[in-house]
Design a protein that fits this description.
With 379 residues, the protein is of the alpha/beta class. The chain has 2 domains: 2-119 and 339-370, Rossmann fold (3-Layer(aba) Sandwich), CATH 3.40.50.720; 140-319, 3-Layer(aba) Sandwich (Rossmann fold), CATH 3.40.50. Helix content is 34%, strand content 18%. The chain contains 13 helices and 19 strands.
Length: 379
């Protein structure tokens, strides 16, 4: 089987879908692996390190795509790239199927079998394939790094001859993977950390990292089978916003991570809340790419409102591209290995497997994922 990895074309993207060590594992399976020249340059991986492990290089992108049986990518494929894919080809990437409806339709028409990495189920068996988790982990770390670069304060308490410096006060909203990593990173830097999540079940995890859990009663809440927070009603959001005001007033850094899978990010920090924050407060919104948790945040910009900085950078894992590429490539290798037939040295479909049923979007010319079918039925 020929596995091809084209370079990422999205502006500003520094990650790659493959690294040499991961590619070597695919070669050990008996696959032929070819990358587009320059694939890893932005991640600090020159072509030579791929060649050294036996990976082939291709400068012609269209040729690479048209000759591959299995294509690995980070972002959804461009329409032009899809037209060069051979029927029966398997494409694996973060497909973003809820928003990229036209690409999904084209993949089906081209008879490309497409797997969406963000739809890998959160089950024990699939943990090593869970790319959303691996990238969110890094996003949480980077969010604290960005906040530290923009705040006017130091993180740890310092006892000096000139007096005592109080620790920076950090508020993390959302205690999923990104939020927990943000808590852990801020604590390592010496900050005083408070965290809030609508799911009471995560309180123990928050406190185990040394943070204080903000207890706010908004009524019945919970999480989905996949472990995501359930969307709050308008009334619950209003209660949450009102209760959070006192935390915003006494915080130096706010990091928001609240997202609902497949839907726009919930608005949990309003303009008047931002204006009530102390001048110098830094707000990093990890949900900026899906609309933002904070009113006034702008994608890939820093907005200042009455002395409060709102930061809405996208592609945060791409700020540590070496390790982000390493983790994503590992997720892909574990997925491929799980469904690899070692005798025929090719991918073997098992349409009844719970992992495949959860993440397979198009197959044999049709959109087969139930949730995505609903979207296409209304198009």
């Amino acid at each position: 089987m020929k596995i091809g990895i084209p370079s990422e074309t999205r502006p500003g993207e520094t990650r790659a879908a493959m690294i040499p060590e991961a590619a070597a594992k695919l070669l050990e399976l008996g696959a032929e692996v070819t990358i587009e020249q320059g694939l890893g340059h932005a991640s600090g991986l020159p072509d030579e390190v791929f060649s050294q492990v036996g990976v082939s290089l291709e400068s012609d992108r269209q040729k690479l795509i048209s000759q591959s049986n299995l294509l690995l990518h980070l972002h959804p494929p461009e329409q032009e790239d899809i037209t060069h894919m051979q029927p029966g080809c398997i494409h694996i990437s973060f497909l973003n199927p809820f928003e990229k409806s036209s690409q999904i339709s084209t993949l089906a028409k081209q008879h490309v079998d497409a797997i969406s990495m963000e739809m890998i189920p959160r089950i024990t068996r699939a943990q090593r394939m869970d790319a959303l988790t691996s990238q969110a982990n890094l996003a949480g770390y980077v969010a604290v790094q960005i906040a530290a670069n923009h705040t006017t304060k130091v993180f740890p308490m310092m006892m000096t001859a000139a007096g005592t410096i109080q620790p920076c006060r950090v508020l993390v909203i959302g205690a999923g993977v990104a939020g927990l990593q943000a808590i852990a990173t801020a604590k390592r830097l010496g900050a005083q950390v408070t965290a809030y999540d609508t799911r009471p079940i995560v309180r123990e995890q928050v406190e185990s990292l040394g943070a204080r859990f903000a207890q706010i009663d908004v009524g019945e809440t919970g999480q989905t089978e996949q472990g995501y927070a359930k969307a709050l009603s308008e009334e619950q959001l209003a209660k949450q916003c009102e209760a959070m005001r006192r935390y915003y007033r006494n915080t130096d850094i706010v990091i928001t991570t609240a997202q609902v899978f497949g839907k726009p990010a919930p608005r949990i920090v309003t303009r008047d809340m931002v204006e009530a924050m102390s001048p110098g407060t830094v707000v990093v919104d990890l949900a900026a790419e899906t609309g933002g948790n904070v009113e006034g945040v702008k994608l890939d910009e820093i907005v200042e409102i009455k002395g409060v900085k709102l930061i809405g950078y996208s592609k945060l894992p791409g700020r540590v591209p070496f390790h982000a590429s390493q983790m994503y490539a590992s997720n892909l290798v574990h997925l491929i290995t799980e469904f690899w037939d070692r005798e025929s040295k090719t991918w073997k479909w098992d349409l009844e497997d719970e992992i495949i049923k959860a993440c397979l979007v198009t197959y044999r010319g049709r959109v087969v994922h139930p949730q995505i079918q609903l979207i296409h039925a209304t198009d």
